[in-house]
């Protein structure tokens, strides 16, 4: 398995897609039930293959990721050739960027001495989707990139 198996909730939400996946392998609903009962290992393998296919499709489309913690923001722009990063560190221990109040403080004070910035870029490894997946596994979430683009504008 290249990534990780989708959660039960994700699999339930992708039920129609999973049915199509089984159909492409000429597996009917009755055959699937038999496989689950008589060959659970084969059923597990099918779920893993399906999960990898879904992850591959999602990751190939991801352009922006955000990982926001109490005092840090890591904003990623995932281009064709490299990963670009805006990193923000808040030096006010009373602030939590994950809250509306904390983020409001940041917007008012983003140019103060209490905020540090770092920009970086890094080439992908052998498989850029694996690199993207690792960021997601570390807590990043897929976004439309509004926050990254805002930083891009103010940093110019």
UniProtKB/TrEMBL annotation:
Source organism, top-level taxon: Bacteria
Q: What's a Pfam family this protein contains? A: DUF6495
InterPro entries assigned: DUF6495 (IPR045470)
Q: What is this protein called?
A: Histidyl-tRNA synthetase
Which organism is the protein's source?
Flagellimonas nanhaiensis
């Amino acid at each position: 398995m290249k990534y990780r198996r989708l959660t039960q909730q994700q699999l339930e939400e992708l039920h129609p897609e999973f049915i199509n996946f089984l159909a492409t392998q000429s597996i009917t609903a009755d055959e699937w039930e038999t496989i689950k009962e008589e060959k659970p290992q084969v059923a597990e393998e099918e779920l893993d293959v399906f999960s990898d296919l879904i992850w591959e499709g999602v990751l190939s489309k991801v352009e922006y990721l955000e990982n926001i913690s109490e005092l840090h923001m890591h904003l990623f722009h995932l281009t064709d050739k490299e990963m670009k990063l805006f990193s923000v560190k808040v030096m006010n221990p009373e602030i939590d960027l994950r809250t509306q109040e904390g983020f409001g403080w940041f917007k008012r004070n983003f140019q103060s001495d209490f905020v540090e910035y770092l920009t970086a870029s890094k080439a992908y490894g052998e498989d850029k989707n694996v690199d993207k997946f690792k960021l997601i596994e570390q807590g990043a979430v897929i976004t439309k990139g509004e926050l990254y683009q805002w930083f891009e504008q103010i940093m110019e």
